[in-house]
Amino acid sequence: MRARHHIAAAALSALALALAAPAGGQEPGPPATLIADQILFDQGSEVIRAEGGVEIFYEGARLRAASVVYDGATDTVQVAGPITLTEPEGRDVVFAEFAELSADLQNGVLRSARLVLDRQLQIAATEIERTDGRYTQLYQGVASSCEVCADNPVPLWEIRAQRVIHDQVEQQLYFDNATFRVMGVPVGWLPRMRLPDPSLERATGLLAPSIRVNNETGTHLRLPYFITLGRHADLTVTPWLGVGPSDTIELRYRRAYRRGDLTIDGAISWDDMTEDDLRGYVFAEGRFDLGREFTLDFRLRGVSDRGYLTTYGFPDPDLMESYVRASRASRDEYIEVGATAYVSLREGDQNLTLPTRVLNAEMTRRFVPGRLGGIATAGLEAFAYRRVSDIEGPDGRDVARLSGSLDWRRDWVMPNGMILAFETALHADVYNTRQGAELNGTQTRLAPFAGIELRYPLARETAGGVRHLLEPVVQLAWSDVSGGAVPVEDSLIVEFDEANLFALDRFPGEDLRETGLRANVGVSYTRTDPLGWSLGVAAGLVLRERDAGQFTPGSGLDGIQSDFLVATHFTDGDRWRIINRALFDEGLSFTSNELSLAWMGERHALETTYTFLEADTEEGRDIDTAEWAFDAEYQLNEGWMAAADWRYDVVEDSMTRAGLAVSYTNECVDMEFSVSRRFTTSTTLDPATEFGLTVSLNGFGAQRSGRSHARSCLR
User: Fold this and answer.
1) Rounded Cα–Cα distance for residues 639 and 665 (Å)
2) Alpha-carbon dihedral of residues 313, 315, 317, 318, nearest 10 degrees?
3) CA distance 44 to 310
4) Among candidates 481, 526, 476, which has minimal Cα distance to 502?
5) Are strands 357-367 and 375-386 parallel, antiparallel or unpaired?
6) Are 239 and 249 in contact (CB under 8 A)?
7) Which of 176, 393, 624, 699 has a 20 to 30 Å separation from 256 between CA atoms?
8) How far is the C-alpha of 195 from the C-alpha of 182, rounded, in Å?
């Protein structure tokens, strides 16, 4: 029969073995619980024996052993194995064959032992010595996070050391006379090495390195060094060490505040690729709580020249946006005040003549207007932009605008199931233009809108659970603009799709308003199958009383009759997704076409898109534009993954970008090899090929958060 006894000696043995004992000077905790097949007290001596399936529980820690002997005369505890000890949270485990410990909770020796930290890193040793309740010394230690099986006893990588010291308080591992081995072959030696244990979230030290080979910048080893700056800030310095025509240092600074956070990324490079010997970039962004539900967020971006980011493989937006803004969003109100600066990196753009300095303030509020019912929206916006150039005319004009709007809509459900909706809006603008040549001065505009809409949703569900929804829609809209001419800047490019088919105004900005009497006609159909797939089709067009010449041919909205709009989608759970949107005329001549296909399986993921836009000089496209993009991943077998991507210019019949990557991931290592090619050429960029290699050893520092891959020995 199993016996249970509360005894201070058992508490000492449990706590000493738990490797979680309090540091010297602290009082021990409450007694432990000892369970064993039998507990023997030797008469005439101070020896207590617990034998047969011994289990000791102490403050969440659990010790299993064959026997435990406490000798009161020597104040020592001897434990015979096999010994298994699990600390309170279950993250650290000790295995041993024999242990001898002092009862003061500070010192002890375990032989033929193995320490497993955070269920990741295991260190086997001939002997483990516990000192001062804080340090664990492992002699002739072998450390690895790789699974070691009987049929594969050699791990992928391991660190062999004459001595390994684990500082439990600082969560650090120190290796003396350490040899790093890959598949049993020594590849490196260090007399002393320090690494964080798996439970440490932040610590100063080296991060996973990577190799970058580029035919323009050279061959470099990126060696990031992480520096903690207190509890709330850190700095990562990444020098590029190697050979080639360039030298680079990357920097990243992060700081957390009580009410927000700040991140600054940047790099400095020395090369002879341009006239400037020193090149670089800096990106900063942050977000702060101002109180009363207001948020301050900002982004600052700067770069030395157009080609720097692309050449060195950093994030390379073609339009850099720097801003600072304060905003508040609630259920029925939105307020924002901000300032923005733009820098275009597009080939051929002249930032001196672009409106790169912008100020804006807006307030939008939604409410129910008393007896009228429905939903009303009121808005007020102040907006201004400035060019650096002082040239008179479009290349130098500066504009300020004050706009107010009021919109109201209400829907009625008729007895036959039809939905009748009425919508009206009024927009008022005051423009002030400087350096605008003939557009100088102040102009006032007023634009009333009105629309009536009729929908007839027809729903049907079959006996098998298939649901059908057919909805024809007709909308009659009218609007007009009174006032003087104003500069057109933010409504140059119009996109016609199913989202704005029934909008009163399809211009994206405020400087142009859609005018005239028009009918928006459309129909949509959706089929939802209980097997998990669905099919949807939407089609429509716009018919006008007269052509006001407001829209360009590339928009699909020009003429008395617009192009036909057809949008389709097919989804089958998470496996298939097909989306297509097309604009074409009566002769099936396409103005634009967008196709997106995604296919996901247990071992593969594929996504491809095709985009075509007809030439439109007024929208800045002198020739047709067509691109095919492809991204795919395929799991070759357990742990191995291959990925490929490319961008193909269909009109030019040439590749623009292509890449290939092969990665391997298991419980102890992450590796990736990649090769990419940029084919495009400009005045600041030449075609370039880049190779990359990244190797990260798991088990040091808190790297495995969210990791799902694990491997176990087959039995």
Assistant:
1) 5
2) -10
3) 83
4) 476
5) antiparallel
6) yes
7) 699
8) 18
Cβ-Cβ contacts under 8 Å for 426 (sequence gap 6 or more): 405, 406, 446, 447, 448, 449
What's the count of helices (H) and strands (E) in the chain, helices before strands? 2, 43
307, two tokens: 């080609």
* C-beta atoms surrounding 709 within 10 Å: 12
Least confident range of 481-495, 530-544, 554-568: 481-495
Residues 124-142: tens digit of each pLDDT = 898 888 777 678 889 999 9
**Which H or E element spans position 546?**
none
Domains of the chain by range and CATH? Answer: 3-205 (2.60.450.10)
- The tokens for 578 are 């097909």
User: Distance between CA 647 and CA 637 in Å, rounded?
Assistant: 27
C-alpha closest to that of 634 among 671, 604, 673, 598: 604
Tell me which residue of 565, 567, 563 sits closest to 595, measured CA to CA: 567
Whether 680 and 310 have beta carbons less than 8 Å apart is answered as: no
CA–CA distance, 674 with 695 (Å, rounded to integer): 12
Give the alpha-carbon dihedral of 92, 704, 206, 190, to 10 degrees: 50
Cα(527)–Cα(521) distance, integer angstroms: 21
Which contiguous run of DSSP H or E holds residue 13? helix 8-17
Are the C-beta atoms of residues 217 and 312 closer than 8 Å to each other? yes
Cβ-contact 374, 408 below 8 angstroms: yes
Both tokens assigned to 48: 């207590």
What is the C-alpha separation between 615 and 209, in angstroms, rounded? 46
Other C-beta atoms lying within 10 Å of the C-beta of residue 602: 7
**For position 17, what pLDDT does the model report?**
42
Three-state DSSP at 422 gives strand
**Of 222, 230, 218, the residue nearest 256 (C-alpha):** 230
CA proximity to 77, closest of 62, 53, 98, 55: 98
Classify each residue of 373-397 as buried b or exposed e, where b means 16 or more C-beta atoms within 10 Å of its C-beta.
eebbeebebebbbbbebeeeeeebb
Pairwise CA distance, residues 168 & 131, whole Å: 11
**Residue 14: which H helix or E strand, with range?**
helix 8-17
H helix runs in 241-302, sequence order:
none
Tell me: the pLDDT tens digits for 323-357?
999 999 999 999 999 999 999 998 888 999 999 99
- Residue 346 tokens read as 């597009």
pTM of the model: 0.81
